[in-house]
Design brief:
The chain is α+β, with helices and mostly antiparallel strands. The chain has one domain (3-175): Gcn5-related N-acetyltransferase (GNAT) (Aminopeptidase), CATH 3.40.630. It is built from six helices and seven strands, in the order βαααβββαβαββα. It has helices spanning 13-20, 23-28, 36-39, 99-113, 129-137, 160-175, and strands at residues 3-7, 47-54, 57-65, 82-89, 119-122, 141-148, 151-159. Strand 4 (82-89), helix 4 (99-113) and strand 5 form a beta-alpha-beta unit. It starts with a strand and ends with a helix. Keywords: Antibiotic resistance. This is Acetyltransferase. Pfam families: Acetyltransf_8.
Length: 176
């Protein structure tokens, strides 16, 4: 199955609400109110909200933000030149099929397309060891624990250099 990321629109509201009620999404993001009604209609230059489609079927969500510029200041006082990613598969039937890896690969390519981006951050729950293993496989390194609102998270970072090395390794692997 091939993944395509497309912009989320107000027409996706019911779908995103549905996904917000799914056990795997609740387990990964139990305390956030995304404010879909407002946010889907608001275009800002520091954020991309994307629906992941597998062969045309919506299966997940990706958000890419510039954490230094986003208006909630979720990441606090943070340096410029970073991106932060939120990602989930909303339909359980699509878990464990490598689609999250495809989603993340496309999200990372979008992040690093901007030459001023030096690293990408992600903040899975501290208890979500499956997510930790997933991000480590992609080349992310743990930065340390951090509390965001009511959630204890483990922040991970992928530098541009580590991303390039991972890309080179994948090309070498696929060429053999």
């Amino acid at each position: 199955m091939q993944i395509r990321l497309r912009p989320a629109t107000p027409a996706d509201l019911a779908l995103l609400r549905h996904w917000d009620e799914q056990p795997q999404v609740i387990a990964a993001d139990p305390n956030d109110d995304w404010g879909w009604e407002e946010e889907l209609g608001r275009e800002v230059d520091w954020r991309e909200q994307l629906i992941a489609e597998a062969d045309g079927v919506p299966i997940g969500f990706v958000q890419i933000i510039d954490p230094a510029r986003e208006d909630s200041h979720y990441w606090g006082d943070i340096a410029a030149g970073l991106r932060a990613v939120d990602i989930w598969i909303g339909e359980a039937a699509y878990l464990g099929r490598g689609l999250g890896s495809q989603m993340m690969a496309q999200a990372l390519a979008r992040c690093f397309a901007a030459q001023d981006v030096s690293a990408v951050l992600i903040d899975p729950l501290a208890s979500n060891t499956r997510a930790h293993a997933f991000y480590r496989r992609l080349g992310f390194e743990a930065v340390g624990p951090r509390r965001f609102g009511a959630d204890d998270c483990l922040v991970f970072q992928l530098t541009r250099d580590a991303w390039r090395r991972a890309q080179a390794g994948q090309e070498s692997f696929s060429a053999s």
